[in-house]
Amino acid sequence: MARIRTIKPEFWTSEQIVECSPNARLMFIGLMNFADDNGVHPAKPMRIKMQVFPGDAFDASEIGGFLQELEDAGLIRRYDVDSEQFLMITGFTKHQKIDQPSYKFPLPNGKVPENPKRRRKQDSESDQGENGKCSANNERIDGEGSPPEGNGMEGKGKEGSPPESPKGGRKKPATPISENFTPNESCKALALKLGVSLNNELPKFINHALANDRRQADWQAAFRTWLGKSPDFAPRGQQPTGGPARPRELTLD
To answer: Considering the domain boundaries, does residue 163 fall inside one?
Structure first.
């Protein structure tokens, strides 16, 4: 989930920044938007490309070159956790003051920090001075708080009651898609039935999932859903079943 970040005026004249190419500088700003509240983000070139440069023709090697520029300038550091590479924006916590942070990715020690408890609304309001004026201790000039991550379903039910366990055993956890995701025979059969090209749809499906940090319990089922919707987006004259394309947003859900 992308976040609002603050860029200080001194950013543009920083020696570390001006040592980098314009595209590397732009990517650095984009990384601040997509990193978690510790300034950590997966160091996957194609994921970064789809998030920061979705309309540009950069390939993985060019994105990797921009990352190397940033690392050489001391703006990021890269490290591995469980065979996956991450990057950390080195001055992130110094320049971004976040009221209620949330953490998503592991630090160099391999651990994801525990998210602090969210303050209740009345606690936040009690920090303000009389007549609704904020006290000096509440002023923020370096950044804004990040919204909590979620899917819009939190907060339902009675307070303090644990969520009900799904019937029939534990629910399979949702996970990110693998860059090497391979459709099974059921997906291939559906593509053949619909007259959809797997060579065209599979890269778009994977890039869409990576760019939006999608998580699914069953990626094969999600890909079948994608294939089922893809005829609606075929160019005119190439509709597998005939008829004009319907202007809908293609999603994984």
So the answer is: no
What's the confidence (pLDDT) of residue 78? Answer: 96
pLDDT digits (tens, 9 = 90+) for 163-197: 555 555 677 788 898 888 999 998 898 888 888 88
The values of phi and psi at residue 17, to 5°, are: -70, -45
Task: Give me 7's structure tokens.
Answer: 């860029």
Q: Which tokens is 79 given?
A: 């490290």
Local structure of 63: helix, strand or coil: helix
Query: Does residue 117 fall inside a structural domain?
Result: no
User: 84 in a domain, yes or no?
Assistant: yes
Instruction: Give the residue numbers spanning the domain of 34.
Output: 9-112
d(C-alpha 8, C-alpha 24), whole Å:
17
Question: Domain for residue 137, yes or no?
Answer: no
Integer Cα distance of 102 and 241 in angstroms? 46
Total number of domains in the chain: 2
- Which H or E run contains 30? helix 22-34
- Kindly calculate the radius of gyration of the chain based on its CA atoms and give it in whole angstroms: 22
